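Posting this for the archive.
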Amino acid sequence: MSGTPALDHLARLAGIEDGWWDFFGEWRVVPPETKRVFLAAMGLPAGDDDEVRDSLRDLMARPWRRWLEPVLVVEEHTPPPTISITLPHAADHQEFEWALEEEIGIVHRGRFRPCELRWGEEHELDGVLIHRRWLDLPALPPIGYHRLVLSDAEGGHSAKMMLIVTPARAFVPEIVADGPGAWGIATQVYALRSPGDWGVGGYAGLAELAAGAARLGASCIGVNPLHALFPSHPDRFSPYSPSSRRFLNTTYIDVESIPEFAECQEARRMFASPGFQASLARVRGYRLIEYMDVAQLSRPMLEALYRWFRKTHLGPETERGQAFRAFQAEGGERAKSFAVFEALHERFEQEGNGYWRQWPEGLRRPDSPEAIAFADKTVERVEFFQWLQFIADQQLGAAHRAGAEAGAVMGLYRDLAVGIAGDGGEAWAEQDALALGVSVGAPPDPLALKGQDWGLVPFNPITLREQAYAPFIGVMAANMRHAGALRLDHAMALQRLYWVPPGLAADQGAYVRYPVDDLFRLVALESRRNRCLVIGEDLGTVPEGFRERMDRMGIFAYRVMVFEKAEDGRVRQPSRFDAQALAIFATHDLPSARGWWGGKDIDQREKLNLYPRAEQAGEERDARHKDRVAMVAALAGEGLLDGGFPTASALSDAQAVDLAAAAHAYLGRSTARLTMVQMEDVMGLDLQMNLPGTTVEHPNWRRRFSEDTAKMLTDPRMTTLAESLDNRSTRRNA
C-alpha cells in the first residue's frame, strides 16, 4: 500500500523520521508500510486511509479534550511556569481553583475565571468552541515532583498534571568535577570467580572485588547490567535483554551469605549431602557458566531458606521480618506486580507458555480482577519472589558499601540496558507505556555491518508522556540505587531510537524521536537526587547536537580508545580526549585488547557469515593492521612502548601484557576525567564477552575468569597498573 500526505503527516507528528543516512552515506527513505507498523504500535491505527484520517484527527484533538497537559518539565532558576488551561468557551466566566501540591507536602492555592487569563487560541471540537488560555503561577517550586490540580469551584470536575522541576545539570562527584584523576575497574559480575561461588559470579564476589579495587586506589567498580532476568527460564541470561530493569538479577544471590543459611537445618543438611557437594564441585569447575545447572542447584536451597525465613521471621515478626515488610512497602504496587508476574511466569513456563500475551486474557494485565485474585491465592509464592528481591537488594547494597568504605568514593558504577524483553515482567506491567510489536536495534555500523535487531521493546513516546514519564523515572531511580555512577547504554535513546518492524531485516527500520528536552532533564533530576554520576554511551550514529547537550548538562561521554582517531587515522593524543568523559580501551561488545589486536572478532564474524559482503572481512583485516600500526606509533610517541613493537596479529603473553599496560598508561595521561580498566585487558586475556549479532553462535555472557578475584587483585600486572594510575591521580590533583 502506498503512502499518502496524511500518512506522512501523522508519522511526523508521532515522531517517525522520514529517512536516515546509512553507514555508507546513502539516504534511506522509510517506506509507508514501516510507518504503518510503527504507528499501530503507538496506538494509532494506520492500516488504510480511513484509519490514518481517524488517527490523525484523534492525535490532533487530544490536547483540546483535556483541561491540563499531563506533565510539564521545567528547569530551576527559570521564571515561574505558565500553565496551559484548555476549557470550553461556555466556562469563560465560571470560577476555578488551582492547587499546587509540592512534593514535601506544602500546598499553594489560587482562584481564577478563565476570561481573566492571558489569551492563547481557540478550536472547535465536536461542535464545541474551546479556548486555551495561560495561567501564570506566582512562583517556581523547588526541584522535585509536584502536582497541579485544577477544579471548578463547585467541585464537580477536576484535572491534574505533574509539574517537575529539574536541575540544569546532572550530579558530578567532586573527584571528577575539576580535572582528570579518577579511575576504576570494570568487569562482568558473572565472570568473577571465588572459592565459595556456586558456578557463577555474584554479589558477594562483587563486594570482594569492590573492596579490593578500592584498596588499590580505584574510585569506582563498573559492572554489567544487574537487571532481573527470567528465573523460570535460566537459559535467558543476556544482561541486556532483561525481564525488568526496575528489579535485580537474583541469579547473582550468594546463598551462603543469606543469614538464614546459618540457621536453617533443612538447608544445612541439603548442603552437606554428598550429591549436593558433587554437583557444586561440578558447576564450580565449568569453564563456561551453565545457567540451568546453577539454577537447579540454588533454587531448592533458596526455597528452603524462604520457608525458614517465613516461619521464624514473619510469624512472629522479628527485626529482620520487619525489614522485609518495610522493603515490600517501599517497593509498593510495582514491586508486588513484578512478584506476581514471576509467580505467573513460573506457572505458565511449566506448561510451555511463558509469553504473557498468550496467557488467559484475564491474566494479561496486572490490574485485572483475575491477576489480583491469583495474587491473593498465592501469597506465599508471590512473597517468595519479593524475598528474593529483598536478598538481592541487601547483597547489592553491601557490595556498594564495601567499595565505598574501603575508599572507592563512587562505589558501584552500574549499567542500564536500552530496552526490555517484550515477554518480561516490565512489559507486562508497563504495557500501556510501550510500543509492543516492534523492537529496538541499530542501523549498519562498523560493529554490525548488517545492522542489529536487539529484540527489545521501546517506550512509546506518546503514551510515555501521557503517563508523566513515570515508567522512565522509575527505571532511572531503580538503577541509581546502590550506585555512584550509571552508564546509559545507547544514550541516544534520550533523543531517538531505531525501531525495527517485525519480520524484516535490521536495516529496514526507522528512527523515532523522543521528547529529548524532558528526558535529559529527568535524568539530571534523578542524578541529583541519588548523587549519581551519569555516563552516556554515545557510540555509533549520534544525532547532531546530542553530544553538546550531554556536555552542557553534565553527562559524561564514553570514549573508547580503539575508536578515538584523528582525521588522518592516528590515535587521538591524550591531550585531545574529551575532558567530561570516561575513557576505556574497549567495551563488552569488543574483544579484549589481546583479542582486538589479533582480529579475533573479525575471524568470528567471517566464520558466522555476519558480513553483508564477502570481501569485507579482508577489508577489516587491512584496516585492523593499520590500526595496530597507529596504536604502536601513538604509544611509542608517549614513550610507553618500544617503537619496534610487532604489529603482526599474534602476541605472546608478555607482549599482550606490555600492550595493555602501555594502553592504560596512555589513557591515564588523557584529559578524560575518568579512566576505566577492564580486568581481562590488564591480565592479557584473549576473550570476548559478547559478539554483536549472535545468540547461541558465540558463548555470550558465559565466560568466566580462570583465576579467583583475590588472586587477580594481587597479581603484579594489576598492582603495577593501579600504582601507575594512582601516581597519575596524585599528580593531576596535587
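The chain has a mean pLDDT of 94. The CA atoms of residues 253 and 391 lie 7 Å apart.
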